[in-house]
Design brief:
globular, 6-stranded mixed β-sheet, 33% helix, homodimer, 14% strand
């Protein structure tokens, strides 16, 4: 089981759900790698450290050159909280309300009608199609620069409904430490998430230390044009890429072009990314964050609408770690 | 004109076409940045150095943090030669010949029939559609790993028809020096090219010092699946993205998520990338390699089928560099 997928049971004692409560929220990705302090001294931490030692030891048969030390992380539920709803969905819902005066027709059109009456459950009754509609109308029709400003304004003021904290504080301290620890050991860290690529880029560098060019995510189509003699990229209402499930290895190949040697996720949507990482030669590492702490965070898995984790990880991988 | 687009006439004296003839072809991107020696001491070199000094000087109003020092380079005709035909097209033509025994139907089907008779001109008479067909049959139907090996095998043995040199030596020494010079000054260098992303990744790190995750290019669709219990990515015969002309700013946004502050191209296909780079705020730099040296390289522009350059750069940009 070393360097493999952990059983959920191995993670029961893992202190993964400590929400960070730093007063200085602008620099969270520095000065933590030598601490690694939010982790209990259990199997996952030991396995991570042993894996990193094996691939970074010069002369070892498991040595991996720095250029190939690629680590990929899901975002929602892996790096930050995804309960009670995806944070990007909370953004979209707020945007629907802000845009409603310009769309009188929404009063009679689902999922907008329910949403504007405050009936979130009714709005989301349409499932993924309803979410897709809400995301489309709130993520297109503006330039990429305009969208960036809209997200920036929202994320600096919006608060999480359960904690009252800014969403950018709803990130997992152990994962921040893990990101910094890997980078200190020559890894290049990437986000590979079903979340919107342009949405995540607004905060990922400040919050996780991951620059825009190391974000892989879902996206809408773009069109380049000149507007008022200035070049702009318009966000179109058409899906370009869905970076979820079997899309994740595709996104990795498109953006990174190298197979990760370590991958971190929390739900069924991350399974193929972990398979892809594990399927390469040499020593590989894959980890699933299992949300079990209902008191300090949220406990959910097999029956959750968001971040569903319903696979028996003992039998998911027919191949070994080499 | 400083820090702006150069007129073609300004580049007439630029020694840009010296093909490198290094005996040690495996390490070409190191130990060159302090030489900058293949450049004549004319306006382009001076402008590059002045631009770099302005954006790297701490405390200056033009200072740009390292994370935002993004420089993008076209590949064909900018970093390496594209005459007498695109190098990737030479690869595809060789692959058609290698695959012909498995495709008896090609004997009666254009553009393959002409090609297999040695009539390149006849094969390419079908224009872009013919090229697209040739590229499709030679770039799909295998896994990404298999394709990488095919390209690797070809590029280590194939020779340029005019010089008899390996294609990876058909790179422009001044541009290698420029890449290294920019990186030594905290820039992150990217390729943004109409060439195939998976094709360029095979050699770009070794030849240019640009890793796979910093390559933006055209691509076919991919499908993730399990084959013989191993995860693979199959290359499909469908176009995913055409990273040319108005596609280049889209590719930049998708992969980099930041607007370049410097961009380098050589043909009309690079125009929008240069517009996009120049359209941002602050000091920006854009440069066009104009091929004028018929003796040591090739001279071509307005009427060329490949790498056509037929714009009046004095009037292309209605906005200044701010």
């Amino acid at each position: 089981m070393e360097h493999g997928i952990f059983n959920a049971s191995q993670l029961e004692n893992w202190d993964q759900s400590l929400l960070r409560e730093l007063s200085n929220k602008d620099v969270v990705h520095e000065n933590v790698f030598d601490q690694f302090g939010a982790w209990n001294d259990t199997a996952p931490k030991k396995a991570i450290v042993e894996f990193v030692q094996r691939v970074t030891e010069h002369g070892s048969p498991n040595f991996v050159p720095e250029a190939e030390r690629i680590a990929t992380f899901d975002n929602d539920g892996t790096l930050w909280a995804e309960q009670p709803i995806y944070i990007q969905l909370a953004f979209a819902l707020d945007r629907v309300k802000a845009l409603a005066p310009q769309h009188p027709e929404w009063k009679d059109k689902e999922p907008f009608a329910s949403l504007l009456k405050g009936d979130l459950k009714g709005a989301l009754a349409g499932g993924e199609a309803a979410i897709f509609q809400i995301v489309t109308v709130t993520h297109s029709g503006m330039t990429t620069d305009e969208f960036e400003k809209i997200v920036q304004d929202w994320i600096t003021t919006a608060k999480h409904p359960a904690t009252g904290r800014p969403y950018t504080e709803m990130v997992y301290q152990p994962m921040l430490e893990l990101l910094a620890y890997l980078r200190a050991n020559g890894f290049k860290t990437f986000i590979v998430s079903g979340g919107g690529i342009d949405f995540m880029r607004v905060f990922a560098e400040r919050v996780y230390g991951i620059p825009p060019e190391q974000i892989v995510g879902s996206s809408g189509k773009l069109r380049f044009l000149m507007r008022d003699s200035k070049p702009v990229l318009m966000k179109l209402p058409d899906l370009n890429f869905n970076d979820d499930k079997a899309g994740t290895p595709v996104g990795i190949q498109m953006h990174i072009g190298r197979r990760p040697i370590a991958a971190f996720g929390n739900s069924d949507g991350d399974l193929q990314m972990l398979e892809w990482a594990k399927g390469g030669s040499g020593v590989r590492f894959a980890l699933i964050v299992h949300h079990t702490d209902a008191e300090r965070e949220w406990a959910y898995d097999r029956t959750s609408f968001i971040g569903r984790l319903d696979k028996d990880w003992k039998t998911v991988f027919p191949f070994g770690s080499k």
